[in-house]
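Sorry to interrupt, but I need a hand with the structure work. Could you write out one complete protein record for me, on any chain you like? Could you add the entry underneath, on a fresh line?
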Amino acid sequence: MTQIAVKVARRKQEAQDIASFELVKPDGSALPGFSAGSHIDVQVPGGLTRQYSLCNDAAEQHRYRIAVLRDPASRGGSRGMHDAVNEGDTLLISEPRNHFPLVHAERTLLLAGGIGVTPLLCMAQRLAKIGAEFEMHYCTRSPSRTAFRDEIVASDWAERVDFHFDDADAEQKLQLEEVLARPAPGTHVYVCGPTGFIDWVVKTAERLGWGKDQVHLEYFGAVAQDTTGDRPFQVKVASSGATYEVAANETVVQALQKHGIEILTSCEQGVCGTCITRVLQGECDHRDLYFTDDEKAKNDQFTPCCSRAKTEVLVLDL
């Protein structure tokens, strides 16, 4: 994957526990283009790689902007960004990739939960620019935790956005069943945020008759897995025929790494799709939030950063 060296041109506190970082080329040249919903991989101080959605106007070529929530349960990514990255620092990033693209629609509903606003902010900017019909609902715990609130209020599409705060009156909270009451074929829904928020939207949409192809989502983190029943299994590398043991307390990525076989990873939670590997034989125990149920049923690829095997051996296309 191509790496790009960028400088932190600006760091700004956008809300409580949320900081944004404006990234530019050190020589001021243009960055690779991107589309609404794109993300980049960032090499965080401490050796970790993490994904962050781009939340500036996709028409801009001189900068990328990301926003990072300080997570109290951080495994080092958000803590590293908040504690160790300052204006003037240099970071290595990937070119933008998009697993959460906008599709053409007669009408678009954007539903953001907390830091999940970042890709949806970019989408709102794009939809406003092309004159598309859309509305946005932005749910946070409180006004002090609402990143980009002033920016949205000052935009020329502010009237299309409703803010909903957990600590305010019940009347202003998101009435999801009302918002999703009319599942018109030409309307598409985009949702991003904590797992519980996304699941609430998806289950409500399904119950109200929305088609699966109308509801688009992007998770920012995986739910905790019950690993008490995990057992060892083996993976076989198709190109060499070599077989390796995966212990009950390690991932496929970790097991292969011990033998010099590297699989590119990013989120390490089965959210981003960076590590996707083809499966030639065996049944997977899918634990990701990336694949759809139909894709999992095909059993021809999996995320070795978190998923395991239901059979004794998985043969991988490596």
Remarks:
- The chain has three domains: 3-94, 107-219, 233-316.
- The chain has a mean pLDDT of 92.
